[in-house]
């Protein structure tokens, strides 16, 4: 996980970045292996989350 936060409202957040080239252009590209690795990382992270975690503040 690149970054994580837990606010006082106990709303959890995380950021997973994928390296890219030519960002903000019509031809932005990423390596397929990086996108696939990010998907695997997200799936593994989701599988390890505690059941009582909240993503909606309040």
Automatic annotation (TrEMBL):
Name its species: marine sediment metagenome
UniProt-listed Gene3D superfamilies? Zn peptidases (3.40.630.10)
Tell me the GO molecular function terms. hydrolase activity; metal ion binding
Q: Where is the signal peptide?
A: none
Keyword Metal-binding on entry: yes
Q: SUPFAM superfamilies given for it?
A: Zn-dependent exopeptidases
Query: What's in the keyword line of the UniProt record?
Result: Hydrolase, Metal-binding
By its UniProt entry, which Pfam families does this protein fall under?
Answer: Peptidase_M42
Keyword Metal-binding in the entry? The reply is: yes
Q: What is this protein called?
A: Peptidase M42 family protein
Family matches, as InterPro entries: Peptidase_M42
């Amino acid at each position: 996980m690149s970054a994580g936060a837990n606010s006082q409202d106990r709303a959890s957040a995380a950021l997973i970045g994928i390296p890219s080239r030519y960002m903000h252009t019509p031809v932005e590209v990423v390596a397929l292996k990086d996108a696939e690795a990010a998907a695997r990382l997200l799936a593994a992270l989701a599988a390890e989350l505690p059941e009582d975690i909240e993503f909606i503040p309040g």
